[in-house]
Design a protein that fits this description.
The chain contains 4 helices and no strands. By secondary structure, the protein is an all-alpha fold. Helix 2 crosses helix 3 and helix 3 packs antiparallel against helix 4. The N and C termini lie far apart (about 40 Å). About 5% of the residues are buried.
Length: about 70
Amino acid sequence: MHLQDILSGMNMVAEGVKTTLSAYQLAVKTDVDMPIVEQVYRLLYEGKDPREALRDLMTRDLKFEPEY
């Protein structure tokens, strides 16, 4: 189903939908790599197939992630 179809049929708040959009836009604006947010955004707003999103996450190149 498409996001708008799901949202229009709900009587409650869909947690995370608006937050995903905001987080994705902020990551793009600040050039921060957020692969999970990017894939969730693509699922919700671009209709990406969930299997493809999962594959893209699991097969992406490894990067150093510093501990803070």
